[in-house]
Amino acid sequence: MLSVLMVSVLFSGCGQADLPVTTSDVLPTEVADQLPPSSPQTFGFGGEATDERIAMWDIDVKPDGEGLPSGSGTVAQGKLVYETQCIACHGATGTEGPFDRLVGTGPWEEWPSARVVGAYWPYATTLFDYIVKAMPQLTPGTLTADQTYAVIAYVLNMNGLVADDAVMDAATLPAVEMPGRDRFVPDDRKGGPEVR
Amino acid sequence: MAKKADSPLSRRAWITTASGVIAAGLIKTQADAVKIVAQEVSTPAQDPTKIPGRLTSELGQRAPAEQPRRLVRSPNLSSSSRTPLQDLYGIITPADLHFERHHAGIPNIVQEEHELLVHGMVERPMVFKMADLKRYPQTSRIRFVECSGNGGGAYNRDRMPTEATPQSLDGLLSTSEWTGVLLSTILREVGIRNGASWILAEGSDAAVMSRSVPLEKAMDDAMLAYGQNGEAIRPEQGYPVRLLLPGWEGNAQVKWLRRIEVTDRPTMTREETSKYTDPLKGGRARQFSFVMDAKSLITFPAFPYQLPDRGWWEIKGLAWSGRGKITRVDVSTDGGSSWTPAELQGPILSKSTVRFRHLWDWDGRETHILSRAVDETGYVQPTVHQLWDARGERTSYHQNHQRAWKVASDGAVTFGLGDLV
What we know:
The complex is a heterodimer.
Chain A: H1 2-12, E1 47-48, H2 51-57, E2 72-74, H3 75-85, H4 87-90, H5 125-134, H6 145-158, E3 167-169, E4 184-186
Antiparallel strand pairs in A: 2-3
Helix pairs in contact in A: 3-6, 5-6
Chain B: H1 11-23, H2 30-40, E1 71-72, E2 80-82, E3 100-101, E4 115-120, E5 126-129, H3 130-135, E6 139-146, H4 166-170, E7 173-182, H5 183-190, E8 198-203, E9 210-214, H6 215-220, E10 223-228, E11 231-232, E12 242-244, E13 257-263, E14 278-279, E15 285-287, E16 295-300, E17 311-320, E18 326-332, E19 340-341, E20 343-345, E21 354-362, E22 367-375, H7 384-391, E23 404-407, E24 413-415
Parallel strand pairs in B: 4-13
Antiparallel strand pairs in B: 1-2, 2-3, 4-5, 6-7, 7-10, 8-9, 8-13, 10-11, 10-12, 14-15, 16-17, 17-21, 18-19, 18-22, 20-21, 22-23, 23-24
């Protein structure tokens, strides 16, 4: 490989633009995606992460509900949260915008209106993971767990996915059946001549 | 713009000025004299061989007439800006012109205080400061980063633009030399436990933006990048450290990285469910469509350029593939009826943009020029019809179909195939 590189360097200095370019010309310039064999098993740079430290940042929620905090919220409580924290961006009924539309049940194929919670979102837990981190847009991360459960209950209720008297908590939220769930398929593109 | 000086400073006037300065006692040494003179030279259009030039400076700047800019559509609300592809040479994007995309603004992070937590299904949960990360074996490689929504503005049959520029259409693409530590090095340090198959990467921005990434990619060529084109990574690109996933969609390459959790399943964050999934015909949606398929784009001639006359022109552009190396770029100057391999300019690097060129003797008649990239898997950049057939016309993201430019008989260049689509 090295000799190929050297030949390529020699010729490139002569400005021979008609030289065929082959992929082997450049392989030696690429660094291997692994450590050299002489590397130690561990280097020891960095510190131990304590349980307290992990708990402070490990706030994500998995689709089976792992990571959901204690607390709860009702549809009625959520309406209050929504109307004070969300309505300006998402509209009175979750359909007006000006930002992402939240409410709707289809027809699913009518993009982009179909990317709403009721038609597209495959997991209700994603609402918690997202809202508790990123919402409200201008004061992110300020809703309590109770407020977050409540506003999710309200949004799900507006989508017709939970009843008016529904209570959302760590047990009920992952159990909400989302219409979009079975729509998603893995990526089947794999290069080669076929267009997918 | 090099403005013409209406009244160029004459040598006599310059001498008078310098004399006045000397008379005022401001020049005490020869160096002072040169400095004063150099400051007088800021007015262009003087004979540069007759006046000493500007002296050295701590920070360089572009020539006054060369001021490429990112395209920011709505300045007060913008969460993206686009690279001026038509203004650049070679394959490297100047760091201050790298496209931007964020979900809650660019965080202000102090490097000394920034920490990366790595935990989950690992033997040794650890916290790394930037100094720790930088002490690990370092590597650099040239890789493109592209937003998976790039070019989606030219997919809808009913809304095909004609006045699109390379920047406005495909400017969510940039290429840098990234420097950092391989993620596999850090995962080796913490020790992956049996059964792990994914990681969650999470940012320290106001959206705490997070994506799930297969462990296989994390252990392959993923990098924790803290350098960009020879300097510290820019705040817009994730300072002090970002996840780099060569060849994969930009959104998954989490910036301002603060946490990696090793898991046995995806977290199903908003950005991998509600967003960055690709609706297909038949009511399905493709999920975890990470790889950016091969694509190319002619960056010259392109709207709004107008060819001033017929004759020899060099068609220039960029090609890239998230699956490896570009092996060929074909160019058509007759609306796609015939194709000729373009000249590829080395280095041809895996998952990097490549420059292509094609000399064209334009006969002055209206035509369409196109390019199509081929990568080392044998994938050929498809026509928009092929994508419509495969995915439907309502899909979104990964719209890597062939781009065309119409060249009118007066030399005016506009985007698209028009009625030929």
